[in-house]
């Protein structure tokens, strides 16, 4: 799985030019890149969790995969190992949830992810979650600034069907889209949207150069922007009309709220 090179060129160039990399942010960006190293590839067999019939043990501890400090970005020129679970069944035994309410399922999901390092769980109702996926399929690209000190740097996001967002440094994307390594992934599981009216989301921060709170903010901002959709739609469909500077200014005002 790799990032596509189909990002709207006008929007891309404006984002790069606008994102002037003030000194504090440029140093932070360099620190982030210092962690773009891996010691071993990620095997999908190590990403599995199981459920028992008890609501308190629906999700077991993961097999020391997601929070392992020695697992970072997989340096391949054209591909990478997906960091988060690809399917809801990689985390939960979905068949055991059929007699649970959406409230019980939501509680289990949030409780499981609570306190985990570099991993966050989010819950939304079925209609909103399906709406998010529909809009993402229509407009797969967007940008998000990360603010540090007196500066900021840009992240580019790409949605890949059926339900994944990949986020990478915009500067890396500029150099080579196929080689840009994701620093964060967001999985959107809509398996229970119709039967339980709940969609479960998971954010996996896979580069230690991105702080935990930064990753969570990126994830929340991405979701909110897609649900609001106006800016996302303009960025993808009418890039000439998208005001990157105004967008960054608005995000900066909200970043520390």
Supply Rg: 18 Å
**Number of strand segments:** 6
Largest sheet: 6 strands, antiparallel
The number of helical segments is 9
Widest beta sheet: strand line-up: 1-6-5-4-3-2
Q: Please tell me the overall pLDDT.
A: 76
SSE order, as H and E? HHHEHEEEHEHEHHH
Overall shape: it is: globular
Distance between the termini: 35 Å
Work out the strand percent: 15-25%
Ranges where pLDDT stays below 50 over 5 or more residues in a row are 19-26, 28-81
User: Percent of residues in helical segments?
Assistant: 25-40%
> What structural class do helix, strand and pairing data support?
alpha+beta
Note the main attributes of this structure.
alpha+beta; 9 helices; 6 strands; globular; six-stranded antiparallel sheet; 36% helix; 257 residues; single chain
Structure description:
With 257 residues, the chain is of the alpha+beta class. Helices cover 36% and strands 18% of the residues. The chain contains nine helices and six strands. It has helices at residues 9-18, 23-33, 102-113, 126-138, 170-175, 193-196, 212-228, 230-237, 244-255, and strands spanning 119-125, 141-148, 151-160, 164-169, 184-189, 198-205. The longest helix has 17 residues, at 212-228. The protein is globular, with a radius of gyration of 18 Å. The two termini are 35 Å apart. Mean pLDDT is 76; it is low at 19-26 and 28-81.
A few lines on this structure:
It contains 9 helices and 6 strands, in the order H-H-H-E-H-E-E-E-H-E-H-E-H-H-H.
Write the layout of secondary structure elements.
Blueprint: H1 9-18, H2 23-33, H3 102-113, E1 119-125, H4 126-138, E2 141-148, E3 151-160, E4 164-169, H5 170-175, E5 184-189, H6 193-196, E6 198-205, H7 212-228, H8 230-237, H9 244-255
Antiparallel strand pairs: 1-6, 2-3, 3-4, 4-5, 5-6
